[in-house]
């Protein structure tokens, strides 16, 4: 049997699934059942918050800087650059460290970055929007 994915939006839909499972012969046809948050779950991860803030900062600066420009400025200011390094006879020049280069940032590192951006923005009179249901809001609350 192929994988089945079903979005559950009500108690009635859940009861329908439970009824189907009650009639299933798991000894004869074992199955693995996984329940996970829907992709539309309101909890925002740190990467989503970062891009929302880039868009907000772009607007705050009257779109003088694009969202990508804001991304580059924040990465330049708070993440820096890789070191110049040699691979064989080739020299690789420093490159901007981003959210995913040279490796994807952890949630903890992203929360620190967001905290730095938040403080930077406040110093400039910009109050960045943060949903209560976000990884960053949880981090901020825990580190006050």
Describe the structure.
The mean pLDDT is 88. By secondary structure, the protein is mostly helical. The longest helix is centred in the last third of the chain and has 17 residues, at 107-123. 44% of the residues lie in helices and 4% in strands. Helix 2 (46-60) packs parallel to helix 4 and helix 4 crosses helix 5 (135-142). It has a two-stranded antiparallel ribbon with strand order 1-2. The chain is built from 5 helices and 2 strands; from the N terminus they run H-H-H-E-E-H-H. It has helices spanning 11-22, 46-60, 67-78, 107-123, 135-142; strands spanning 85-87, 90-92. It has a domain at 46-142.
Q: How would you describe the shape?
A: extended
Our Rg estimate from Cα atoms comes to: 22 Å
Cα end-to-end separation: 50 Å
Helix content: 40-55%
What are the segments in which pLDDT stays under 50 over at least 5 consecutive residues? Answer: none
- List the strand order in the largest sheet: 1-2
> Helical element count?
5
Biggest sheet details = 2 strands, antiparallel
Given helix and strand content, the structural type is: mainly alpha
Average pLDDT confidence is 88
Per DSSP E runs of 2 or more residues, the count of β-strands stands at: 2
Q: Element order, helices and strands? A: HHHEEHH
User: Beta-strand level of the residues, as a percent range?
Assistant: under 5%
């Amino acid at each position: 049997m192929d994988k089945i994915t079903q979005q559950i939006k009500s108690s009635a839909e859940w009861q329908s699934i439970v009824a189907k499972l009650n009639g299933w012969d798991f000894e004869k046809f074992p199955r693995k059942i996984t329940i996970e948050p829907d992709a539309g779950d309101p909890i925002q991860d740190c990467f989503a918050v970062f891009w929302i803030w880039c868009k907000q900062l772009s607007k705050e600066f009257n779109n003088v800087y694009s969202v990508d420009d804001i991304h580059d400025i924040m990465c330049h200011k708070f993440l820096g650059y890789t070191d110049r390094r040699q691979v064989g006879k080739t020299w690789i020049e420093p490159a901007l460290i981003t959210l995913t280069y040279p490796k994807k940032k952890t949630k903890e590192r992203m929360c620190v970055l967001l905290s730095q951006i938040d403080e930077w923005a406040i110093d400039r009179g910009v109050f960045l929007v943060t949903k209560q249901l976000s990884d960053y809001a949880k981090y901020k609350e825990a580190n006050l």
